[in-house]
Amino acid sequence: MNNLQDISRIILDSKKIGITYHVSPDGDAVGSALALLNALKKLKKDAYLISKDIISENLQFLKGAKEATGNLTSATEDTSIVVVLDCGNYERISADLDTFKGSIINIDHHVSNDNYGELNYIDTDAAATAEIVFELLEELGLNFNEETDSIKNIGTCLYTSLVTDTGAFRHSNVTFRTHTIAARLKKIGVNNTYIHQNLFDNKSFEKIRLIGKALNGMELLLDRKVSLIKIPISYGNELGIEIGDTSDIISFGLQIKGVEVAVLIKEVENGTKVSLRSKDKFDVRNIAERLGGGGHVKAAGITLKGIKLEEAKDKILEEIEKELL
Ligand SMILES: [Mn+2]
């Protein structure tokens, strides 16, 4: 593995730098990418975002979020490096890099990362990729004691990543380092309440009704140790909305007493997306990997192409049952 000093040197030596993340970028992916983007611009580097995705509504308050238009999906001709953040597998990058001739720098915290970069920095102890980005930015020469708007904007991106990847500092991935970085960002004036409100108290009425529909259909299975939520495409059609991110819906499944694993299966255009969460020692990454997915011990996911909702449900429950017994 490479170190942050090497990566920092290569970034500083590069003329044009593309930044991207995993498809359907979450708060950590977006926060990490925008923190790096804003930081490189502050350092007068020619940096830009490559993204097949448009950034979700609740992350639009972050500076630079509008740069992801969904139109720039590959690196421009004159780009020397592309930094990929928070993405474990080459196939999941929100950019087409097959014809890219420069170097890929892979910075991530997923255990399942397959080291697809020319340079790789994978720190699985980091609760969020943003913890690594914070350290990289210091290495690049940014001063997180400086109480300027530009540093505060970068800090807001990083803090957002920390909040979203730790369940608002609730999950067991939180460390002394997580809180130390959060404290340093708070000290320069990052507004945690503003971030929380934008992230969580910002839902449309239709989204709340979608949650209602999803919870109404929730099942408790395998001795009430597994909660299962199904979201067919028709739910979105009935409410007139795009279903989008459902990570807030699956968390309801874990709130039930006695439940060890929460499952959310979502119908998508080409098949089914499965999300898994666990409470204690149950390893959902193991389950996800057996079905071609990946993630973390307590949060993982799989895309099952060409597989219908009911079939996906049977497959996933079969695998969970083997582990629970
Ligand atoms: Mn992450």
TrEMBL record:
<dbReference type="InterPro" id="IPR051319">
    <property type="entry name" value="Oligoribo/pAp-PDE_c-di-AMP_PDE"/>
</dbReference>
<feature type="domain" description="DHHA1">
    <location>
        <begin position="241"/>
        <end position="322"/>
    </location>
</feature>
<dbReference type="Pfam" id="PF01368">
    <property type="entry name" value="DHH"/>
</dbReference>
<protein>
    <submittedName>
        <fullName>Phosphoesterase domain-containing protein</fullName>
    </submittedName>
</protein>
<dbReference type="GO" id="GO:0003676">
    <property type="term" value="F:nucleic acid binding"/>
</dbReference>
<feature type="domain" description="DDH">
    <location>
        <begin position="16"/>
        <end position="160"/>
    </location>
</feature>
<dbReference type="InterPro" id="IPR001667">
    <property type="entry name" value="DDH_dom"/>
</dbReference>
<dbReference type="InterPro" id="IPR038763">
    <property type="entry name" value="DHH_sf"/>
</dbReference>
<dbReference type="InterPro" id="IPR003156">
    <property type="entry name" value="DHHA1_dom"/>
</dbReference>
<dbReference type="Pfam" id="PF02272">
    <property type="entry name" value="DHHA1"/>
</dbReference>
